[in-house]
Amino acid sequence: MTDNRTKARLEIRQAELKDVRAIADLVRRVYDDMPAYTHGEIRGQLNNYPEGCFVAKLDGKLVGYCASMRLSERVAFSNHTWDEVTGNGFGSRHNAKGDWLYGYEMCVDPKTRGTRIGRRLYEERRALAERLDLTGIVFGGRMPGFARATRRKRNRAETPQDYLDMLLQGKLHDPVLRFQLANGFEPEGVLENYLPEDKASKANAVRMVWRNPYVDSDSPPKHRVPRDVESVRIATCQLQARAVANFDEFMRQIEYFVDVAADYEADFIVFPELFTLMLLSAEEKELGPAESIEALSRYTPRLRTRLSEMALNFNINIIGGSHPTRMEDGDIHNVAYVCLRDGSVHAQEKIHPTPNEAYWWNIKGGDSIDAIQTDCGPIGVLICYDSEFPELARRLTDEGARIIFVPFCTDSRQGYMRVRYCAQARAIENQCYVVMSGNVGNLPNVANMDIQYAQSCILTPCDFPFARDGIAAEASENVETLTISDVNLADLSWARAEGTVQNLADRRFDLYQIEWDKRVGQVSGRIGEDSEAPSAGPHGGRGG
Prior knowledge:
InterPro entries: Acyl_CoA_acyltransferase, C-N_Hydrolase, C-N_Hydrolase_sf, GNAT_dom
Organism: Erythrobacter litoralis (strain HTCC2594)
Structural class: alpha/beta
Domain CN hydrolase: 232-489
Shape: elongated
Strand content: 15-25%
Number of domains: 2
GO molecular function, one term: acyltransferase activity, transferring groups other than amino-acyl groups
Helix content: 25-40%
Largest sheet: 13 strands, mixed
Number of strands: 20
Low-confidence stretches: 529-541
Protein name: YhcX
Distance between the termini: 48 Å
Number of helices: 15
CATH class of the largest domain: Alpha Beta
CATH superfamily of the largest domain: Carbon-nitrogen hydrolase
CATH architecture of the largest domain: 4-Layer Sandwich
């Protein structure tokens, strides 16, 4: 019997992280007159509300993308800019109990005209709103004919409202707004200065609204966030400095704790910053700073390989503390190698070397920080001093990280408390979990390991679902041990939407924002992946 069926040419589905590169390429093609997204921004959009992001693929090629999030009516219908409402392009203002679906990106490859990709993506949004009993959909629609209309002699539009009125009267034609009107959206006013990068619209947009006919607009349902369970088990290793004869002996010590954590079915284990300095005890004589870096760098390939093998064999995600590494350009960076149990290896460099690291070791700071996708969701790594810079943790949270690991190495209680207090602050202000891991003990004849002070811990936000004092678990001071605790990621979702305070949602984007260099979020931290070309200039959202 002959099977005459052919494979479907068109696929509309929820966007996935594997689509990030193709989405970035599509946006760059469609909006060549506006700056493109970084990959970090797209990852944030997908991580913050994956259910609201859709892609269209035609004959295997990604040709359409739309991004949406849930917002309260107060925010969705306020006067706002695209930057303010999207959290600078990350979609980080998503409100899990918001009663409106807000669309902030819609782009379709112009070469696919006639296949109604845009209409199909709008239908996916509408189906989502209906399924969740949302009040409706709202977005800022571009008016790309406005700039041209202000220069006309006939039917000249002086203001954005004039342009909208003339369009509705049939005196002007705007293909974008006409398309949105044809899809059941109605205009409800103009958003001025919505998107400064949109020169064709002179930065303006029309607030377009679709109201769900299945919801009573006078008494819409009150949305609540369920108190679900999304349990993750975390182990933090407080590691004793000890002399080792060689690399294999050092790795046996590390494997012991990995094995124990795996026996307890932990999902993650994190080791301290500079935990590999113990390898210097295997040298025949005490080395100076430059010689030490060269000696440690020789171990880098083997370290990555062994940690990756352990992650795979023991079925656990390993945050490999940090390791001084000489880079291809000759600079020395302090790098955390994150080895996941699927066999992949990621690298996160320390962004801010301490004055001591810069002076004695000539360590340079990295220039990129991004969330790392794991089988337990996105995570972030802030190496010691980096935890004392709030904008780094906020960047990771905007990209969707719910757990931030802080490997640290401190010699005194004062130094430890600086990291501890800042880590607790990061947990509160970002409504996420922060996990600290430090070295203890001393190691004579090894620079930077003379004395150590640590009390490793797993920190939480301070609200009703969490531990009374914001500490899920902590080790005894200055004792080698493994500290293990379960955390519920669903509690973070609940706290961000319904907590006593809602730090993420209550940010004043109309007053302040952080502008990142566009190279940040473009270069992948995954070992072995091709780097991605940076795009210059501020991002530009398209609205709708």
